[in-house]
Design goal:
With 275 residues, the protein is α/β, with parallel strands linked by helices. The chain contains 11 helices and 8 strands.
Length: 275
C-alpha cells in the first residue's frame, strides 16, 4: 500500500500516512490507528464500508509498516504527538480518531493529551491500562520475540485475533495478518510491547468529553469487556458496543459491524456540531 505522504515527526522519525479513500477537503478527516504489529491495511475493509464524505486516512505508527523504526523507548505520548503532527501536515485542526488494540490505546492517549483536536473518538478492542502485572507480561513477550523470533508468537497471536469459525472459513485473512506480523522489525516490536506494558491512560482520558464509542468483541480475551467498561466509566460522552461472537481483531473479522458503530458516533458528532 503506497503512502499518501511521508510526515517527519519532531524527533526525525518519518511516518507513513495512507489514503484509504479521498473525501471532501472541507470536512474533518478520519484517521485510523492500527493494532500492534499490524499496519494501515487492517482498516481497509472498514473504510470500504463507511458511507461518509470525510477523507479516510490510516497511519503506520512509528516502528510499524512503512514508517521509521527508531530505537526506543516508545511511549503512548510520543505516538499521540506523532498523530498531532500528522494532522498538522494535513492542515486539520481536528479529526475523527479511530484505533484498534494498540491503536486504541494510542487514540485514548491522543484524546487525553489533545482533546480539542478530537472530533469524535472510536476505540476498538483496547484498554487504557493492562494492569499491575503488565510491565512484566509484556517484557516477557518482547524477550520471546527477541530470543526466538516473531514466528514463535504466531500460535499465541492467531488464536487471540479471530474466532475459530472465522479463521477456518477465511484462511486468507488470517494468512494476511500473519504475513504482516512476520514482516515487523523485531526490535521495534519489542519496544512497542514495552510501551503497552507501561501505558496508563486512565486519568487523562476524562479530559475528552466529546462523542465516543467503545467497541469490543464479546469473546475478546486479550482486552476483555471489563477493560472497555472501565474506559466507558472514564469517558463522559461514550457509548459501549459489544459484538457477539468476536475476538480481538473485530475490524478485520467483521468490518461492516465495526463500520456501523463508527458511523453512529460520526452521526452524533455531526448532530452536536450543528447545534
Amino acid at each position: 500500500m503506497p503512502a499518501h505522504r511521508m510526515v517527519t515527526a519532531s524527533d526525525g522519525c518519518v511516518l507513513a500516512l495512507h489514503t484509504l479513500r479521498p473525501g471532501r477537503a472541507d470536512v474533518e478527516p478520519l484517521v485510523f490507528l492500527h493494532a500492534l504489529a499490524m499496519d494501515a491495511r487492517m482498516w481497509q475493509g472498514v473504510a470500504d464500508r463507511l458511507d461518509i464524505v470525510a477523507p479516510l486516512y490510516a497511519l503506520d505508527c512509528r516502528g510499524h509498516g512503512a514508517s521509521g523504526k527508531p530505537a526506543g523507548p516508545y511511549t503512548t505520548a510520543r505516538f499521540a504527538e506523532d498523530l498531532a503532527q500528522v494532522l498538522d501536515s494535513l492542515g486539520a485542526a481536528r479529526a475523527h480518531v479511530v484505533g484498534c488494540s494498540m491503536g486504541g490505546t494510542v487514540a485514548l492517549a491522543f484524546a487525553g493529551l489533545y482533546p480539542q483536536r478530537v472530533a469524535s473518538l472510536s476505540v476498538v478492542d483496547c484498554t487504557a491500562w493492562y494492569g499491575d502485572d503488565a510491565p512484566g507480561a509484556w517484557e516477557g513477550r518482547a524477550q520471546r520475540a527477541l530470543r526466538e523470533g516473531l514466528a514463535s508468537l504466531i500460535p499465541f497471536q492467531a488464536e487471540r485475533w479471530f474466532s475459530p469459525g472465522f479463521a477456518a472459513a477465511s484462511p486468507e485473512v488470517l494468512a494476511g495478518a500473519v504475513e504482516v506480523f512476520l514482516r515487523n522489525d523485531v526490535n521495534a516490536y519489542a519496544e512497542s510491547c514495552r510501551m503497552l506494558g507501561r501505558a496508563d491512560e486512565r486519568e487523562r482520558i476524562s479530559r475528552y468529553t466529546g462523542p465516543a464509542i467503545v467497541v469490543v468483541g464479546e469473546s475478546d480475551y486479550a482486552t476483555p469487556l471489563a477493560m472497555s467498561q472501565d474506559i466507558m466509566g472514564r469517558l463522559p460522552g461514550a457509548e459501549l458496543a459489544v459484538l457477539d461472537g468476536l475476538r480481538h481483531y473485530t475490524p478485520m473479522e467483521a468490518p461492516g459491524r465495526v463500520a456501523r458503530r463508527i458511523t453512529s458516533v460520526l452521526v452524533r458528532a455531526s448532530s452536536l456540531s450543528q447545534q
